[in-house]
Amino acid sequence: MIETNLPIYYMAVNIASSQFRGIIPPMITPLNNESELDLKGLRNLIEHLIKGGVHGLFILGTTGESTSLPYALRHRLIEETCDIVKGRVPVLVGITDTAVSESLRLAETAKQCCASALVAAPPYYFSLGQPELIEYYEYLADRIPLPLFLYNMPSHTKINIEPDTVEYLSKHEKIIGLKDSSGNTAYFNKLLYKMKDYDDFSLFVGPEEVTAETVMLGGAGGVNGGANMFPRLYVELYSAAVAGDIEKVRDLHDLVMEISTEIYSIGKYGSSYLKGLKCALNLMGLCSGYMSSPLHQFNKEEKDRLEIILKKIQKKIL
Amino acid sequence: MIETNLPIYYMAVNIASSQFRGIIPPMITPLNNESELDLKGLRNLIEHLIKGGVHGLFILGTTGESTSLPYALRHRLIEETCDIVKGRVPVLVGITDTAVSESLRLAETAKQCCASALVAAPPYYFSLGQPELIEYYEYLADRIPLPLFLYNMPSHTKINIEPDTVEYLSKHEKIIGLKDSSGNTAYFNKLLYKMKDYDDFSLFVGPEEVTAETVMLGGAGGVNGGANMFPRLYVELYSAAVAGDIEKVRDLHDLVMEISTEIYSIGKYGSSYLKGLKCALNLMGLCSGYMSSPLHQFNKEEKDRLEIILKKIQKKIL
Amino acid sequence: MIETNLPIYYMAVNIASSQFRGIIPPMITPLNNESELDLKGLRNLIEHLIKGGVHGLFILGTTGESTSLPYALRHRLIEETCDIVKGRVPVLVGITDTAVSESLRLAETAKQCCASALVAAPPYYFSLGQPELIEYYEYLADRIPLPLFLYNMPSHTKINIEPDTVEYLSKHEKIIGLKDSSGNTAYFNKLLYKMKDYDDFSLFVGPEEVTAETVMLGGAGGVNGGANMFPRLYVELYSAAVAGDIEKVRDLHDLVMEISTEIYSIGKYGSSYLKGLKCALNLMGLCSGYMSSPLHQFNKEEKDRLEIILKKIQKKIL
Amino acid sequence: MIETNLPIYYMAVNIASSQFRGIIPPMITPLNNESELDLKGLRNLIEHLIKGGVHGLFILGTTGESTSLPYALRHRLIEETCDIVKGRVPVLVGITDTAVSESLRLAETAKQCCASALVAAPPYYFSLGQPELIEYYEYLADRIPLPLFLYNMPSHTKINIEPDTVEYLSKHEKIIGLKDSSGNTAYFNKLLYKMKDYDDFSLFVGPEEVTAETVMLGGAGGVNGGANMFPRLYVELYSAAVAGDIEKVRDLHDLVMEISTEIYSIGKYGSSYLKGLKCALNLMGLCSGYMSSPLHQFNKEEKDRLEIILKKIQKKIL
Questions:
Q1: What pLDDT was estimated at residue B19?
Q2: Is C151 a catalytic residue?
Q3: D253 to chain A: which residues are within 8 Å by CB?
Q4: Domains plus CATH for chain B?
Q5: CB-based contacts of D273, cutoff 8 Å, min separation 6
């Protein structure tokens, strides 16, 4: 990289919107407590991910516990992350919020830190109709300084971004793609079909359980939580799927399903995925396992169970 | 105003928890735009409500568009409201948020401004189980400087606060009541029955359509949106219900149902209630009709329709 | 009644539609096994109800496990019930089904047995829109030989019969009322308000927890499961509510809430109400406690717990 | 089997459970009106499907409007279908019902007509818990004379058959597989992973939009509505997916997505898929387009739009 007057790590990753592809982990947020980042853990985790070959980082998503974090911490996380990444991979920043003004402030910080793009799920308190959703995204897109990915997350936001809505919004120059975390690939395949003539619109899936199949059929990649733990595995799965190497896809997909089935199923209620993931990262020595309220980390017994499972899986992968 | 060392309007309303009763309007938030209060409107509205005889004010609820407002504005609203009210009626402050740290900061401001109590709905992004909900409320209640009302709002938060959960939480000294906005009085009556031996626990309903009946059967009152427009009407309905004056209850309830049916049914999607209410307040000359994103105020045609309806209703009430 | 050649118990109950009022228990279906009525229990139960002063009987509703019963048994139940009742009170017959042809066959049997009216919830397999619901009810109403009550049961049918739909359908001469089992009295009060100028349209509630309040505000009565056990109590509650005798209403409502809270909360999952009710009737010696698949009667331990509760309540009521 | 006087086409298709694979269209039910089969259409359609190379037929599913059909017609359809098929392909018979006795009667008819297997979704009126679901399926499986496929259809039945429930039930000797119509392949892939060591358990998907990907990753095949129209296309897609011929899979999947996007999106509400499909079959001259209540066939304008679309698609496929 060439010396300039600008600090080198503040140079924007110059990347055409259609070039967002591959594995972009939704990074967990290493925390010491409700209001303090685990900065050492953050550095460890980012280096671990970049070394693992990921194609980008997505911070402040659901996996990053974004909505549970105080605002000052969210802004700080953007700054620290961009500072550590130093342009080596694109950084996508979640700005999902019920208050559009706060989303815009996060977007501003992302721009100043030279992040690459923004990601926004629908506002998740009031129940909206599709026309209201369109108005919301247009309002947002008109005012943000970076390109935007829509984020479909109906289980959490109570609204599905319908295919017609996606097509309509894709015409806005700032809106360059969508991440779908519904797990419903019947829906996702409709999006792929509908958008196939729009060159610069990238469609990602969230759940790692469907990355293999969606990439084989034209998806842009996976924003997969498990890639926090084993970035290389997910990157290889992505590459095999792009290459159409079905045998390899099947083998690697099988490992991903083992991770999903074993690591994400300890503990009860809706968030066992997130709890298992963060606990595993802690067990791997990468960062603190603290979870922000209203979620809680595993108790001792759950953690012990996970440790055994994790070791078994690590042997197969590493 | 008498000179003292402490500004008189900062003196706390000294009120035992069991004394929260009556009509406590969920105040709409008068706005000039996404990030600025309509201060003149705020003053008008508060004087209108106090003159109307309301038993308290609830700010930063769903009707106050709390989750859509930037944080600085939420804190500012608490300060301005308490400053205007000057202890004449109790002020309840909504601190509902997905980030518990932000809820705690709002609680701190409420305390400093001498508000009377806090109100918190469950965090509304992650899907929680009842035990997680209990842990959340205990965490919150342990750290707040004012008494707390639970706020049941399942259509928006995706979780119902189950009767057993309410009973369990009621034992926490800070938790003094619940506001139920489900509209489901089968549920509400179960709460009333379960909690009847807990003297200091107050059960309010949100929807004005059920205030009459729930007060007749032991409810503490109504946090009714329509009381923003016609406070006197709702206060009289409450008094008639407490007195068991059924004839009067039926007549006043009929007016409330006319308001609900006529004013809250213009416009589409989930929030026609809120849009109709804020537009009516604007038509009455009380404050700005600006609605914060993701909601939008009525268009010209809808506003004209509402104006005709409103005039017809005003004639009956005033 | 005038002597005729027709057996007296086959004479239709001649009753104007507006005259359906009061407590009309949704009768449980006494069963020996999956396909056989407990006829002795049926006779006991009907005499118990009529002696208790109920204003009618509703068979083949949700409480009657209608959708779980084989068709031959449903037809048989209509015949036996009408034969036992012999016109002493109106008999309402549930014809809810996903196959409209089977609903029509049940309606035909009801007519032949001189039942008074029919009750139909929306078909509950396909997800319908309101216009499809209107078409469905019109199709049905055009072909039935008896007047029809709509039956709102959104938790089971996945669709709410919207107030506008009710108003539209009420214009059909065969459609004379609605039973609402949503528990949502905000919705029910909107119906009451909307339909108050339609003289011959009766609005009943299902959940006994809301009978008191809805009757005080103009409801026609309650189709209350608990009236299977204690018909007199519910009839007296209804009378007190009609008379506006609030003190008495409060006392009796309290007993109903005790029944609801104590008897319907043993056992898990959605149907603890139904399981508790049928078990209690069995414990009272009225009929068999057999429940048809997919529900199951209580196990020994649950039954023992219920017995103690039931005795305590019986002492207060009898 | 011993030589008998029974015609050879009544001999059971002798097929090991693990051999159910491939494209098994959920056959629409050709109807003249609410209670009469279109027998000529039925014959045409079955010959069309067998000529198209399908691996089996599934009658009386959601696509067959099973729950809307009178019982006599359901039994008749089983008889006629088996009589026409004459053992050329396996016939799977839907016995989904809220009344288990009626399911058992349908199963008996299926056995007598030498059908190959049964298919049952959960009972869809009462809300059940997973343990209740297990009890239900065990009760059913213990009493049926043919092997059974579970049928996951949460949007219609209000319950998801959880992976643990599937694993538990798979140990019952009569339960040999599952058809998943959720569209959620994150769920489906968990099932594939969980069940991979159970040799004789077949996992099918319903939505044709996900057949390609699920077969590539180990699924047994597709119960795809579109195969009623174009059986050959879906069979070829299945074969290409089994062979891992990704290029061919992508091309054929694209055609399936065009069918899905164009043919199933006319008309409103939940059932545009079913309405479009049945209307297309009518336009192709295969059978009557009559839909049983509560669904309705397209109006003239919708039918005309579909005709143009269908011709365009037929040109690409045939």
A1: 72
A2: yes
A3: 189, 217
A4: 19-245 (3.20.20.70)
A5: D225, D264
